[in-house]
Amino acid sequence: MEPHECPLHGAGVDPDRLVGRRVQQVEAAWRRDNWEDAFGPLEIWLVDDLGGYFHITTGSDWCLIVDGATPHAGYDLGESGRVEVVSNERGTPFARYAGEAILAVDQRFDTRTGRVGLEICFSTGSVKCGSWRGDLQLAG
Fold this sequence. Notes:
There is one protein chain. Helices cover 0% and strands 48% of the residues. The chain is built from no helices and 10 strands.
């Protein structure tokens, strides 16, 4: 196992491969129920100008998973609501950077769980992604 690799989920995709690519679309998975606003986002997909997917979510061990998975369909959670996957979701800090090139990527690691933070930098700002108690946190 590499020093920055999650013991449960592996190393995932190298985020540095995004440097120089443009974010063409943002997709997000949200948990919604019948009584309250959306929870999340639970997962984010950045679609680059080459048609590649960059998926960001959290693992059961509170790591930050970064892989190339494509968006899935939403699903029903029964009495707990549902998960909806929405394109160009305005509720994420990534939406304002659609069309911009990624200039740099910076990662943070924990010795027990691997990646726990990721900052994606654009010419007009950046978005910080993190795992906090198993929840995906985004700030931008």
